[in-house]
Amino acid sequence: MGGCACATLIPSTLFLGMRNAAAIEIAEKLDLPGKMRLADIALGAAKTMGASYADFRLCRYQTEYIQTKEHRLETSATGMSVGFAVRVLLDGTWGYASSPLATDDEVKRATANAIAVAKASQPLQLRKFELEDLTSYQDRWDMPMKADPFLVPVNEKIDKLLSINEAALKAGANYANATFTFVREEKFFASSVGSRIEQTRVRSMPETEVTVIDKVTGKFASRAGLAAPRGSGYDYIQGYDFLGEAAKAAEQAREKLKAKPIEPDKYDLVLDPTHLWLTIHESVGHPTELDRALGWEANFAGTTFCTPDKLGKLKYGSELMNIVADRSQEGGLSTVGYDDDGVSWIGNDGFPIIQDGIFVNYQMAIGQAQLIGKKTSNGCAFADNWDAFPIQRMPNVSLQPNPKTCSLEDLISDVKRGIYIMGNGSWSIDQQRHNFQFGGQLFYEIKNGKLGGMLRDVAYQGSTVEFWNSMDGIGDKSTYFLGGAPNCGKGQPEQTAPVSHGAVPGRFRQITVLNTERKDVT
Length: 522
Known about the structure:
With 522 residues, this protein is of the alpha+beta class.
């Protein structure tokens, strides 16, 4: 199995911090007219030097990371990172340069460097980029939120985390940890087509885990939290029942120690949306990225089986399968007014990737659409830092609910012998996003339409198209859950991107299930 494209830990901007106080001081003094002046310098210089297109991004990232274990604070760190980048298109070849120092002279120098990079890259260019007709926008977009996490006193956040741990410990956990990560992302974008866009969004990312130990046998079991990261303010943290979940997690971790091991076989699976979102990410989100299909992404976790000749033809899944990509969904980690190519999502409800089971669309950045006979990008570009080149990244990619009434209980009731899976666990998928294996957090036996006791050591295997075609039932909108990951990895140098995936529970027939218990070899 190949590596997964969901990468590491906490956001890449987190501990860049105060390493360049001069750059931060300069950027903090820039008002909107000052940003526009720098953009005009860059775009004017790029045009003079022959660029057919250019854009300028000025970014500011503010971060906070608080980690607690049991009754103690482990880490409390804040950071800030600022800088700008200039991107040019010269004779069909991209050039790019960046700097943390947002001054007139540095902008001129970076623009000249971007032109030089484009010229140096031209002998390696196999095919010239041709941009579609781009629309210009003059706008400001701010993510709606009720409570700014960066204005909440740090002691209040620490007390909240410690109370979560305390709830788990009181419920029988031996160990408990809880973490909050917050990111504020501010971007100013200007392009040679006339766009001038300011954007601000915030991410609130809770993580919890409890562990219990059987002191007689020495065995242990853990249960990670089911609260998803969100494109939201601190009001999301305030509104979520972390204390109730922590207590429930401790109870379920205890139950895991007594759970019955799974017998390997084929089973019907009912996958909870707290689990299914990651299966969507790996087996639908990544395979339908156009740069991957064109072979540009082969160095990081492979390409895709979903090649352009399959567009509009491949029966990706059952007729119940409708997957929509959007950057407008409330709370979505990818939700934003404009992507990093300056393509608008204002008033855009998204586009279908899979429609009634048929593969109908790729995710694209500018300069890619014409390669598959399309006219325009669909707004899927993102750069994870001011010094990163925008590449094609997922918007929020979600499984749409059943238009007919269908509850979780309805799905389970039609299963004679199966397994219900909650939460995401280990995952692996091959280099072309075809064959995969997934674990989870919680597994329950289904017998004759009834939910039974807990199982353990469960993982299921499948091939993407066969798996999604085996889906014969999904929940309605009342069962919808928005999951996601703040740290999806892609590219070289690696970039991490936040992305949400909405899902409803799905029922999949006769899926291969393994027992993952480690057998000691003597």
